[in-house]
What we know:
The protein contains four helices and 29 strands. The protein is mainly beta. Strands 18, 19, 20, 21, 22, 23, 24, 25, 26, 27, 28 and 29 form a twelve-stranded antiparallel β-sheet that branches. A hairpin with a 2-residue loop joins strand 24 (466-477) and strand 25.
Amino acid sequence: MRRAARALLALAAAAALTLAGAGAAARASAPAAPAPSYVENGYQDPVTALPPVTRPDTPHCTVTVMRHDFANSYGQPYTGTVTPPAQCAGPWSKVVLTWSGSVQGRQYDRLAGVWIGGAEVLRTSTPEPDDDGITWHVDKDVTAFTPLLRTPQPLVADLGNLVNSTYTGVYHMTLTLTYYTADRRHPAPALADRVVPLSGNSTTAAGWYDLAPGQSATASVVLPRNLVTARLEVYARGGGCDEQWFDSVPSDLAAQAPDYLCGGGSYREVQVAVDGRPAGLAQPYPVVYSGGIVPTLWRPIPAVDQFLTLPYDLDLTPFAGLLVDGKPHTVTLTPYGAADTWTVDGTLFLTTDHHAARTSGALTADTVGTSPAVSTTEQPAGDGSTAVHTATTRDWVTQGYVDTSRGRITTRVAQRTAYTNDDTVSDGGRHQVVRQRDTGATTVTTSTARDEGAVRTARHAWSYPVDVDLSVPVYTDGDNYQLSGSVRQQRVLTDSVRAGRSGAWRPVAVTDDTVTATGVLARQAGTVVSSDGTGSEHWLGTTDTGGCWDRTLTAAHGWLTADVTRPCRLPSDPGPGSNGGSLTR
């Protein structure tokens, strides 16, 4: 909820979270309530269908690295130090971060992040509380950051919050790291040799970059002279009007209803450049905050990516041969199409040649463009509505080689994407029906000249469908309004590998996460007269150990009504023409 009317509605909605009981008591003397007139009286703690992070059965140590209350905390992050425990000195089979909190009263949803050694290891956002208070936690496997965790590192945790007489919720947060020692059955995994943060001054402050439209974030780094591979992990999340960038419309249409519509169009991508040369891009997932669209949609089942924001991976290995000269090089992140602030950050994961002090190489192909051909049409109808259609496709390749002690290694990265967004705007901007489809696949092929048969291909495919029906039939001010909405959002991810140039694809990880929700929220004369929602989540996919997980949650009136976990089996790969595998029960 962002534009003029929605900004006030967001204020009122956050306040409404704790006024349900008072609203129910006042309904007898209030004007007739909009249907449905049910008023939630609290709701349970957030719960998701995601599989838990598995924990190895080995000796382990849990270290509490932060206990902190975030009240008036804008520009005041928590800072400390992370030190590996002497009792679990490593090597580790796994390291798990747990971010847990509680909040009571009234409060907005807030963006939060955690940095260790300057690298962003967690991005998340908060739920909105009720008077009784709620608790929640997020677990994340951070084993990939082991090169930093082996030694004491600065810790920064940022959760910008505001507390006053109206918005009273203080976020009481705890952060722990659990180190699981390695043994014969649970060996330490193969990891990058070095982790290089691209963050800003994240040893004493939040390391992300807040970028206005047209801005980019650039970091300068000096990389190892024996570099072999380079992987970039990118975080990107929109703010303000770009919190829900997928329902933004062309600026000329937004100007006709500025109280309800955001401009700039609906297409976004995050572009990456190396030394100013285009190097790849990421398609952002359409995340919704816990106060987004209609707050009652997300009680108690959050939207996809709401609490555990997934980063995007880009393989920059084709550029490795250009980066081994011992000189500073730049990596630049640009949110293309941004109409409001975007919060971005990145981390490099590098492998090096253990048998050579230097490598060399070259970039041999780069067709990444910085200006996607986005087409947008607007079709007004006789009933006063306007249908907006936006579409684009992307198809690019980068390729390069590195000469190592194992011989020449050539890496080819190819990506294809397809994007469409159909948005019907009616009732002077008060009603929007959005259907967005975003699919694509990135294929990375690695070959070694010494052995012609040593060819390995990995493919990451995604599909991000989202359907939104949002209506604001009544809006007078923050004390008199109606909101209703329905959402279906899905994330399908498939990671597959094959050996040789024509071998069969073998899936190694599959995720199919679907959340559907409906919600209403209304106030009359400052009293909540309608506050209700339903939701469901179905998560089907592979766990972090390769098992199969199938769980379904359903909820109504803020409480779970069903929680079912079923046996399932893993799929066969559907082939390169598909953007997702299908698991079966």
